[in-house]
Design goal:
Shape: globular
Strand content: over 45%
Order of helices and strands: EEEHEEEEEEEEEEHEEEEEEEEEHEE
Oligomer: single chain
Helix content: under 10%
Radius of gyration: 26 Å
Largest sheet: 22 strands, antiparallel
Number of strands: 24
Length: 508
């Protein structure tokens, strides 16, 4: 398989290792650069910057009489240089800066499934994964010869897991599993203080930790129409001896042949960002000594309740509605910045944290989702989804605020039609529309930023305002030719057809 386009090329192959053998392979490689499109005068919204990336994936499958062994993996890297010094006007919200960004990731795993009997099996998996990234920003406003921001990160994870599955009869099923993760993390972030002419660490993390998980899940079918799934999930962080025990419950009732109701409830916990546990904070300015002030942070937890209704409308149509509520607690907050909560981090390029954070913050999410779809039939399909929601939090000061992700609504619509030209060729047209509320943001305090020479924020108005609504219209026209030994597809993708200028972030 091969594919060549203006944005690069893709190569792939799959099949058996040998004739009359069940062992098989699948491999795929992609390389992309938008340099050619740039030379044609197309604007990506990043000025002179040209994104580049490549990735490779593979899977090897070896079936045996009572077992199956598979080896699979994926890896890739990307880079981009957003150089405002080469632009005639500000681009992508990085006015006055040159940004160099690189990222890479990789995963390789071995999975072994052994069939103990027709009704039971054990699946064991060993996986090694890693991510690595760096970002360097130069301040053009102050004409600094050295970088104003320097960030680097690496995280390696080794995972071993095993799951036992037992089918007792047509009504009872049991799953039991164990997972153990070992992390090695190294995160470094420095900013240059213009007035003091020195670097200050805002993130300096290096360490190892172990994380264990176990679960047991039982599913019972009372009838063909009604079933219940119940389970217990546990987690343990060996770094600070933090533990969590979480019951979960799910119900499904097909009260009519074309209608069903689902209910789910449970507790869910998660660790903090791994680097946060090892962040070093300056505690002694005289001797320049650092301490791990966030090492003892507890899990962040949430209680989930979901109620869903689904109905098949006939002629390939389906309607689904879902109500959900999430109560989040034990969220890290800081007395140093009472308006702050870790719940609003993760939506931008930077990750804010403070020394001596406490698990006293709370948050809530509540919303309703609607899905209407038509499955592909006679060449036509469509999918419409709409979500309306509220998301807020309380920081150390106990004041209720919008979260950074409270853009209130998201609407997606996509549709397509296929024309069968003959027995070997197909022409298709697809269109996709996304309309959503704008992201909420932390406003910049311009006067204070001028005084300090660095970006300073107005926390008194945290996340009160939103950027303008997000809108994007994409379309695709493709022609597919199926031959005896070769398949060809020619496609034209049109992204952001209205050239709507969506705001992602702001900077000083």
């Amino acid at each position: 398989m091969g594919q060549i386009g203006f944005n690069g090329f893709e190569l792939g192959a799959e099949g058996p290792f040998a004739k009359e053998k069940q062992a098989s392979y699948l491999v795929n490689f992609r390389y992309s650069t938008l340099e050619l499109l740039k030379q044609l005068g197309m604007n990506f919204g990043t000025g002179a910057a040209v994104p580049k990336y490549q990735d490779v994936s593979f899977k090897l499958n070896f079936p045996f009489k009572k077992a199956r062994l598979s080896v699979f993996g994926i890896g890739g890297n990307n880079s981009i240089a957003m150089l405002d010094s080469e632009n005639e006007e500000a681009q992508y919200g990085f006015s006055g800066t040159d940004l160099y960004n690189k990222n890479s990731m990789g995963v390789v795993a071995i999975k072994y499934q052994h069939y103990l009997s027709e009704k039971s099996n054990i699946t064991t998996q060993l996986a090694l994964s890693g991510i690595k990234g760096s970002a360097t920003i130069f301040d053009l406003v102050h004409s600094l010869d050295t970088a104003s921001i320097r960030e680097s990160l690496s995280e390696i994870k080794l995972t071993v897991s095993s799951t036992y599955t037992q089918k007792f009869n047509m009504k009872n099923f049991l799953n039991i599993g164990l997972t153990y993760d070992v992390y090695a993390v190294n995160y470094v972030g420095e900013e240059f203080l213009v007035k003091e002419k020195r670097y200050r660490y805002y993130l300096n993390s290096d360490g190892h930790l172990g994380f264990g998980k176990a679960f047991a899940e039982w599913r019972h079918r009372f009838s063909d129409q009604f079933s219940i799934t119940s389970g217990l999930h546990s987690s343990y962080l060996f770094l600070n001896n933090t533990a969590a025990l979480e019951p979960r419950l799910g119900l499904k009732w097909d009260f009519k042949p074309n209608q069903s109701i689902r209910f789910g409830a449970g507790l869910h916990s998660q660790t903090q960002m791994k680097a946060l546990y090892f962040s070093q904070n300056l505690t002694d300015t005289l001797n320049m000594s650092y301490e791990l002030t966030n090492k003892e942070l507890d899990f962040s937890s949430s209680a989930h309740i979901v109620l869903a209704y689904e109905r098949l409308l006939g002629e390939g149509h389906r309607l689904k509605t879902e109500l959900y509520y999430q109560k989040l607690y034990d969220i890290p907050v800081s007395r140093h910045q009472p308006e702050f909560s870790l719940i609003s981090q993760g939506g931008g390029f930077s990750y804010r944290s403070y020394a001596n954070m406490e698990n006293t913050g709370t948050a809530e999410n509540i919303g309703i989702e609607l899905t209407l779809e038509k499955f592909l039939n006679k060449g036509f399909y469509y999918l419409f989804t709409a979500s309306v929601f509220e998301s807020g939090y309380r920081g150390y000061d106990g004041v209720w605020r919008n979260s950074a992700f409270n853009n209130n609504f998201v609407i997606n619509a996509l549709s397509g039609y296929e024309w069968k030209l003959n027995e070997k060729s197909l022409l298709s047209v697809d269109i996709k529309v996304v309309y959503a509320g704008g992201n909420r943001y932390l406003p910049i305090d311009a006067e204070k930023s001028i005084r300090e020479g660095n970006t300073e924020y107005d926390w008194s108005r945290a996340y009160e305002e939103k950027f303008p609504d997000y809108f994007r219209l994409n379309s695709r026209i493709s022609y597919r030719l199926n031959m005896r030994r070769l398949n060809q597809e020619w496609a034209l993708d049109l992204q952001n057809m209205t050239n709507h200028q969506n705001i992602f972030t702001q900077n000083w």
